[in-house]
Design brief:
Blueprint lengths: L10 E5 L2 E4 H21 L10 H21 L7 H16 L13 H23 L1 H6 L9 H36 L3 H41 L4
Antiparallel strand pairs: 1-2
Helix pairs in contact: 1-3, 2-7, 3-7, 4-6, 4-7, 6-7
Length: about 230
């Protein structure tokens, strides 16, 4: 049986410090498809009752994301929709394309999931500072006492690591299991697993985006809770 390729970060071409691997190629494919698809859908938007299927699908996705953000944060979804929506759409598209032969989802690479988790790690304090101010946001790290500072910092780092490893582990395990089954069982079983993998990919995109919103909501609401509690 042929060796199973499970390392999308292995170099396909390298010249000096410039390295091209399967993860990089897959990421650019996803970005190009998203940019071209966005342009194709939004170039002729309609405000009437008649609209294209692409616009209808886009409005359904945006509406669902706005509802989820509002329910999680109890705030207006406008400021958070571009970031959280981009996370969801990128991860979902990356995972859905796994059905294409020869394509390796960039989310099955730890470098990609770590980069996405790092974006969340940076976005959380930025949103928190923008809403509560830098001094108020920093104060939550020493609540209820200054001795909690190292533990709160470790908590921030650990949840970032958990985001990266959770997405990577789920996507990588699905790819490996599908490859193993393809070598031992009839073709229709891997097809069923592939369809199940697509559903799992959408669920993982949803979980990642919602967890990112939970962390952002926690950062933007922590100071308000602290301020209101003495008066209650």
């Amino acid at each position: 049986m042929n060796d199973i390729q499970i390392n999308p970060d292995e170099a396909l071409w390298q010249w000096g410090t410039v390295l091209i691997n399967q993860t990089l190629i897959s990421t650019w494919i996803v970005m190009i498809l998203l940019v071209f698809g966005s342009w194709l859908i939004t170039r002729r938007l309609s405000s009437g009752t008649t609209m294209s299927r692409g616009q209808n699908l886009l409005e359904v996705i945006v509406g669902a994301l706005r509802t989820q953000i509002r329910e999680v944060s109890r705030q207006e979804p406008g400021p958070y929709l571009p970031f959280v929506g981009t996370l969801f759409v990128f991860i979902a598209m990356s995972n859905l394309l796994a059905i294409v032969p020869g394509y390796h989802p960039p989310t099955s690479s730890l470098s990609t999931t770590a980069a996405l988790a790092t974006c969340v790690f940076i976005a959380v304090p930025l949103y928190g500072i923008a809403r509560t101010g830098i001094s108020a946001y920093a104060r939550q790290y020493i609540q209820p006492s200054i001795f909690m500072l190292p533990f709160n910092i470790i908590g921030e780092l650990s949840r970032t690591l958990a985001l990266a490893v959770r997405l990577y582990g789920n996507m990588m395990s699905g790819s490996v299991i599908g490859a193993i089954l393809l070598g031992f069982v009839p073709v229709f079983v891997p097809i069923v697993m592939q369809l199940f993998g697509l559903l799992t990919g959408l669920i993982q995109a949803y979980i990642f985006a919602i967890l990112a919103m939970v962390y952002i909501a926690s950062a933007t609401q922590a100071h308000e809770t602290t301020v209101d509690s003495p008066d209650s």
